[in-house]
Design goal:
alpha/beta; Isopropylmalate Dehydrogenase; 2 domains
């Protein structure tokens, strides 16, 4: 008997941005999953009208019909203030977070099989008085996950991070041998068990230019990173490094590698986004649930114009469905 398609929740994120555009556009997509959009149903209907899309919204989260053209299943999470296209509003920050909290609860309970997130506006959430550094850290707190690992994946490259949303001045102090080892264990474990890769090989960036140039450009490689990689090898993880980041992302080094572990956000992600922007997927590893996300921001200037590119969202939903099928098979 065929397995029923997995239920994937989509949180559109910032109400003033392109997330709602992408959500209503999904009603015309042939998806290999059962979709439920977690958002304000009235906002979605209004956005569909603005975009000239005929949309029928179903508000019963317990009955998710098979995908049909023009139909969208919605779990209604009301906004605090009516959303205006392109206009950020701190009043709606808590509603955005409520949608995330609800989706996490349903995924943890097993009623829904995975969640895919649209872009939130970090600054507007913080301006609302809520400390928020990103989805990765927020979902980790909701699920009591000690060490979430952020990874972006395109068709040709996977890049995970030791540190995520930190000021550059704080990165060296946040990198420790223990953090590197635990990050590698999470990365290697999820590549094996969720992605089905039997023997993942991971390339590890150094922190400093030229991976420290033998200590002349910094000693973190010698004192922290190299001992951590030796311990990781002792634990059976296939790692190469530390390697200079300016030459690691070349075909010669990447050939045969499964993923790259970068020390900080802007060390690895610009390369991946250059090679596959709009088609890459953000995956949070180490969580007890499956979470994928788009690789772009809120793009408020594109909201309501009909020019939002759904490529990254379709990739993120597709990966969420694939991982959910593996986990529940």
């Amino acid at each position: 008997m065929n397995q029923a398609p997995p239920i994937i929740a989509f949180t559109p994120g910032e109400p003033a941005g392109i997330g709602p555009d992408l959500a209503v556009g999904l009603a015309s997509q042939d998806l290999p999953l059962r979709l439920i959009v977690v958002a304000d149903a009235d906002m979605l209907q209004q956005r569909a009208v603005a975009l000239g899309i005929d949309l029928a919204i179903h508000r019963d989260p317990d009955r998710i019909p098979e995908p049909r053209s023009g139909n969208l299943s919605v779990c209604h999470v009301p906004l605090n203030s009516p959303a205006e296209i392109g206009r950020l509003d701190t009043e709606n920050a808590t509603a955005v977070l409520r949608g995330l909290e609800l989706s996490v609860r349903e995924c943890v309970s097993g009623r829904w099989h995975a969640m895919t997130t649209g872009p939130v506006h970090k600054a507007i959430i913080n301006e609302a008085g809520i400390a928020f550094s990103g989805h990765t850290e927020f979902l980790a707190r909701l699920t009591d996950t000690e060490l979430p690992v952020m990874m972006l994946a395109s068709e040709s490259l996977k890049v995970a991070l030791v540190t995520t949303h930190l000021p550059l001045s704080e990165v060296p102090g946040a990198i420790s041998g223990d953090r590197i080892i635990r990050t590698l264990e999470v990365l290697e474990g999820d590549l094996r068990h969720r992605f089905g890769i039997a023997s993942p090989r991971i390339l590890v960036c150094g922190l400093n230019p030229h991976a420290g140039e033998g200590g002349h450009l910094g000693r973190e490689e010698i004192e922290i990173i190299e001992p951590a990689l030796d311990e990781a090898r002792y634990r059976g993880i296939l790692v190469d490094g530390p390697l200079p980041a300016d030459t690691l992302f070349t075909p010669r080094h990447l050939s045969g590698a499964t993923a790259v572990l970068a020390m900080y956000h802007d060390q690895g992600l610009p390369v991946l986004k250059y090679s596959g922007f709009g088609q890459a997927v953000n995956v949070t590893l180490g969580l007890p649930i499956i979470r994928t996300s788009v690789d772009h921001g809120t793009a408020t200037e594109l909201a309501g114009t009909g020019r939002a590119d759904p490529g990254s969202l379709l990739q993120a939903l597709g990966l969420a469905a694939t991982l959910a099928k593996v986990e529940h098979s």
